[in-house]
């Protein structure tokens, strides 16, 4: 998540980046899972997410300044962006757990700490779910509620009354998601518990696609089927001069 922190992107941007990448890989498999095609896809997904959520978006080359293995010309990234958008049927405004965070935070009977601290801890948990493929089964609303409950921490009593949950939210799915977060994320995500918002690091990240590194293993290793995405020979030849290996 270093790229996300370096550019001070919103948590939604990071989550959407992984969302686009995962949805693309659910339909296509890359010919070189760990080679330049995956890095190009990662840069394109990050760029698209930033364009959707950020007021100021870095130049495409500026997303690749931090020791990437390959450097792509802007035109090459833009072509990949078009390919991603076409694969997603141009549906880039995905509903995410962040759309529900304020709803559940405001429903808490009392806040054990500041609203900002709870929001930060819940956001960190939601971003951490991209590392565990099991969370793909849960609706965004269920993930948001579970993240809030986990962020509150010890002593929190799971709501027994249905009035706490909107009609469209499955209470049992929230409970299952909450248990999964407690099992997989709390010990591995130190920021999951309440804390003061951290200061953004000033050091340059080592990779322009660090925000997607966590999703890479889960996405590539679990895609055993799907159509093979093999660019035509002409496309590979015409794109080759635009890819510079570092």
Automatic annotation (TrEMBL):
Sorted UniProt keywords: Cell cycle, Cell division, Cyclin
InterPro entries from the UniProt entry: Cyclin, Cyclin-like_dom, Cyclin-like_sf, Cyclin_C-dom, Cyclin_N
Keyword Cell cycle included in the entry's annotation: yes
Pfam family, one: Cyclin_N
Domain Cyclin-like: 1-86
GO biological process, one term: cell division
Coiled-coil parts of chain: none
Domain Cyclin C-terminal: 95-206
SUPFAM superfamilies: Cyclin-like
Region Disordered, annotated ranges: 219-246
Family: Belongs to the cyclin family. Cyclin D subfamily.
Protein name: Cyclin C-terminal domain-containing protein
């Amino acid at each position: 998540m270093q790229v996300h922190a370096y550019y001070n992107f919103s948590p939604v941007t990071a989550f959407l980046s992984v969302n686009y990448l995962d949805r693309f890989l659910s339909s296509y498999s890359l010919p070189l899972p760990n080679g330049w095609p995956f890095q190009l896809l990662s840069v394109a997904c990050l760029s698209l997410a930033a364009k959707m959520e950020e007021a100021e978006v870095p130049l495409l080359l500026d997303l690749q300044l931090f020791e990437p293995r390959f450097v792509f010309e802007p035109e090459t990234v833009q072509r990949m962006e078009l390919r991603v958008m076409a694969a997603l049927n141009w549906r880039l405004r995905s509903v995410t757990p962040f759309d529900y965070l304020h709803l559940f935070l405001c429903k808490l009977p009392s806040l054990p700490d500041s609203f900002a601290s709870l929001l930060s801890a819940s956001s960190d948990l939601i971003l951490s779910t991209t590392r565990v493929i099991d969370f793909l089964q849960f609706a965004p609303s269920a993930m948001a509620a579970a993240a809030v409950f986990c962020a509150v921490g010890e002593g929190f009593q799971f709501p027994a009354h249905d009035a706490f949950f909107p009609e469209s939210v499955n209470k049992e799915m929230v409970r299952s998601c909450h248990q999964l977060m407690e099992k997989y994320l709390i010990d591995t995500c130190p920021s999951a518990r309440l804390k003061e918002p951290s200061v953004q690091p000033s050091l340059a990240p080592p990779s322009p696609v660090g925000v997607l590194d966590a999703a890479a293993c889960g996405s590539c290793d679990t895609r055993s089927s799907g159509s093979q995405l093999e660019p035509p020979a002409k496309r590979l030849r015409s794109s080759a001069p635009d890819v510079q290996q570092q």
